[in-house]
Amino acid sequence: RGGAFIGQRRRVNLGGELVLSGQPTTTDGEHFVTAASIAFAAEYGHPIGKKKNMEVGGGGVTGFFLETLRHNGTSNTTCPEGGNAVSTRGGFLLAGRFNFVFLLGKAKKHELGLRLTPGLGLPGAGSTGGNDDDSIDCGGGPTVFEELELDGPELVVTFDIGYAPRF
């Protein structure tokens, strides 16, 4: 994450973030998704407490993501891509954000923050796959994401705790 505080009271933060993640997608653990996203973020923090060393606030995130469905071992899908990749797709991300931040030091130049970001991912269809075996015709069928019933909008929730300098 990175950003700049703007405004007379420096309560609005405009910036961006890069997120890398991974998660299992099937109960048998055979398939998993790796994802990367790049997004624009806008946040507002309202100081609370007698010393004004805490902030609560919110904001939003919007950007793009790329997901790759991978497998452990052999994929049982119709048309896996080469290697351990099964299918790849891009999409659009739109999310809200809730912040709770502790400001540290006399000049409040350090923060320990907790952020909860629930959102909606709108993915594309994904590749239909394809491998080096010419005996498998991968054209015209459902994508691997559809085959595994991972098509359609996604609920995307990120939760992070971290330190950031403020200058």
Structure, explained:
It is a single chain. With 167 residues, the protein is mainly beta. It is built from one helix and seven strands, in the order ββββββαβ. It has one helix at 144-147, and strands spanning 2-6, 12-24, 31-48, 54-71, 85-104, 110-123, 154-165. Strands 1-2-3-4-5-6-7 form a seven-stranded antiparallel sheet, with no helix packed on it. β2 and β3 (31-48) form a beta hairpin. It is elongated and about 60 Å long. Residues 131-135 have low confidence and may be disordered.
- Overall geometry comes to elongated
Beta-strand proportion: over 45%
The helix content, as a percent range, equals: under 10%
Structural class: mainly beta
Give the rounded overall mean pLDDT.
Answer: 85
List the helices and strands and how they pair.
Elements: E1 2-6, E2 12-24, E3 31-48, E4 54-71, E5 85-104, E6 110-123, H1 144-147, E7 154-165
Antiparallel strand pairs: 1-2, 2-3, 3-4, 4-5, 5-6, 6-7
What characteristics describe this protein?
single chain, mainly beta, 7-stranded antiparallel β-sheet, 60% strand, elongated
Brief summary:
This protein is mostly beta strands and 167 residues long.
